[in-house]
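Obj: model holo form, ligand = zinc ion.
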Amino acid sequence: MTTPDRAILGARIRTLDPHQPVATALAMQDGAITAIGDDAAIRRVCDGTTELIDGTGMTIVPGLTDTHLHPFWGAEATQGLDLQNVTTLGELNAVLAAEWERKQGEGWITGWGLHFEPFLETGIRGDTFADAVGSTPTYLGFFDAHTAVANQAALERAGIDGPRQFEEFASIVCDADGRPTGELQESGAMDLVRSAIPEPTDDDRYRWYVEAMREMNRVGLTGIHGMDGTPATFDLLRKLEGADDLSVRMIMPLWQRPETTFDEMHDQLHLVNERGRRWRGGTAKFFIDGVIESGTAWLVEPDLKGECLHSFWPDPGKYQRAVALFARAGFQCITHAVGDGGVRCALDAYEAAGAAPGIRHRVEHIEQLTDVDLPRFASLGVVASMQPLHMHAFEPDHSDGWQSRFEAERLAKTFRTGDLLRSGATLALGSDWMVAPFDPRLGMAWARLRRRPGQPERPPILADQRLSPLEALQGYTTSAAFTVSEEAVSGQIKVGYRADLTAFAADPLEVDGDTLRDLPVLMTVVDGEIVYRAAE
Ligand SMILES: [Zn+2]
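Output (holo C-alpha cells):
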C-alpha cells in the first residue's frame, strides 16, 4: 500500500456517511480519500513523506457545491465597483469620487449591484453624481440586471441624445423635453452604452475568472454547477485546467435557446462525454420562463396583475422535443422554471422524454409550485434545485414586486423547500450568482431561517418550509452530488471518494442560522489540493 500525500489530524469531521458519521482524522492521496478514522489509525497509514495538517479547531464537512451558478458571466458582470451596499446618493457620490481619484479621470467608471433606494427622491438620473465623476463616462448597473444609469459623457460616447425605438421592450428614459435622464431600461437600451465601453482583453477576462473561483474557495466552495455554457466554454475549461487554474470543480451545460435549430442541437450531441479532471459536460440547459418580478415567469393562472402567462419558448412543444432529443442522447436536462406553469411544462417534458440509465433531470428555481405537481418530483425522480436566498427582497407586508403579485392562497405555495423534502424529492441548493452572492453560509442560513440572517425580528417566510441545519448542509453536499449522479464519488467523506473538503471554525450544524453567516472558513480542499487556507 502506498502512503498518503496529505493527512488531517485532530479535527472534528462530519462525514455525512451514515455508516461512520464522525471521525477526527483522514488521509488523502491522488485526489481521493484513502483512510478515515481516529488520529491513531490515520497516523499508522502515514510515513515521513505525508504532509500532516493540524486540524485542531476545524470542523470538516464534505466540500460544498453550489448547484446553480453562472461563473464566467458572473465574473464579467461583477467587474467595476460593487455598489450592493450603497443606500444613499451621498454614499454613491463618495464611492464614485474615490474611484475617480484612483483612476485620475482616465477611462470609464463602471459599477454593479446598485439598489433603487438612493434615487427614491430624485428619480434615476445620471446628473445625481455629476460632481463626483465630472466628464468621466460612467455606467452603473442595478442589482435587478434590467436597469442601468449612465451620465451624460457615457451617453455621448454611445451616441445617445434622445429616445429610440426597440424591437423588444427597452427604453432610453427621457424627460419632458426629450433629453435622456441617464436611466436605461432592459438590455436593448443598456447594450447601447455597454458596447461603447472599451472591451476587456482576453487576458483580463481570464484573470477575472480565476479570481472569481479563488473567491469561491475562500467562502468554502469546492464545486459548482454552471448554468450557461457553450462548446467554447469547454475550451476555456481545458485552458484553465491545463494552467492549473481551475480551483473549483464544475459541471458545465450546453445552453439551448428557443431560436436554436434542431440541426444545431444535433451538432452538439457528440459532446455528451466532454470532460476534464475537474469539469464535465453531459448536461443541456433550457429556460422555460423568466422571473416573477417582471411578469415574465409562466404561471398556471395569471398573477394579480393579469401577467405571467407565457412560456419563454414561443412554442413549448419545441422545448419538449428538444428535451427529448438531449435526453435520448444521454444528457441530463436542466430547466429554469420559476412559475408553476413552467415547472409543470418541464415535468411533462421530462416524463415524456424519460432519461438514460443513471441520469436524473432537474428543475431550477421552482418559486411557485402547485399541489398537483409537488409529488411529481419524487415520483419522476426529478431533482428540485432551489435558491431560498432569492427571497431577500421580500418585505414582511408583501409590498415587494414578487409577493404583491399573489393572493394569500398562492403565497402559501412559495419556495416549497420543506414540502418537497417531505414528499421524498431531492432538494439541491445554490445561489444563481450573480443574481445573489455565492457564499454557501448565506445560502444555508436562508434555507434554515427563511428570513434575512441577522434580523431575528423578521418573521420567517412560511415557517414550515424551513430546513434543519443538516438538511441545508445536505443541499450543498450529498444532494448536490446526487443531482448529477455522482453520489458514489462525492458529497460524503468516505474512502474512495473525492478529497473535496470544507473546514469551518465551528460545526455548521451546531451554529445558529444567524451566526452561520460569519462562521470562518479555515480551509478548502479540492481534489486533495489545498486551494484556500485562512491566515493564522
Ligand atoms: Zn441562473
